[in-house]
């Protein structure tokens, strides 16, 4: 199946919620991300599942694709509970947004296991663009809830 590469842009919290849904379960290596304070940009590559291809009941293999994720107008980046070395892969649960353009917005990338990246920005300015060709995944989404039984 040939899928047209996805390209999305978010300019407000509602748009960002759409990008968050597309990124659910994406694999993120924070070693592949960088913050450039001069450009006020936080950007990197993720490996996302092509959930938009899925049908119920499942009709074929789950596929993945690399995607560039970019946040502009970022004033500060903070992390909590995450391995930031290259090869430390984390499962993205969602992207959140709060605040307003008068006082600034706070966006959060929330990961399975409780880790997070917090972005403080003037406004929501996010882009997501698939790069390269999709491949059949050997993985399926799974989450560490942090609860031990």
Mean pLDDT, nearest integer? 88
> How large is the count of helical segments?
1
Overall spatial form: globular
Spatial order of the strands forming the largest sheet = 1-9-4-3-2-6-7-8-5
How many structural domains are formed by the residues?
1
Strand/helix succession: EHEEEEEEEE
Radius of gyration: 15 Å
Major sheet attributes: 9 strands, antiparallel
Distance between the termini: 41 Å
* DSSP summary, beta strand count: 9
Relative helix content: under 10%
Class inferred from helices and paired strands: mainly beta
Poorly predicted runs of 5 or more residues: none
- Percentage of residues in DSSP E strands: over 45%
What's this entry about, in short?
This protein has 149 residues and is mainly beta.
What layout of secondary structure does this protein have?
Blueprint: E1 7-10, H1 13-23, E2 27-36, E3 41-49, E4 63-72, E5 74-80, E6 89-100, E7 104-111, E8 116-121, E9 126-136
Antiparallel strand pairs: 1-9, 2-3, 2-6, 3-4, 4-9, 5-8, 6-7, 7-8
Task: Tell me about this structure.
This protein is mostly beta strands and 149 residues long. The protein has one domain. It has one helix at 13-23, and strands spanning 7-10, 27-36, 41-49, 63-72, 74-80, 89-100, 104-111, 116-121, 126-136. The chain has a nine-stranded antiparallel sheet, covered by helices on one side. β2 and β3 form a beta hairpin. It is globular and about 45 Å long.
Sum up the structure in keywords.
single chain; mainly beta; 1 helix
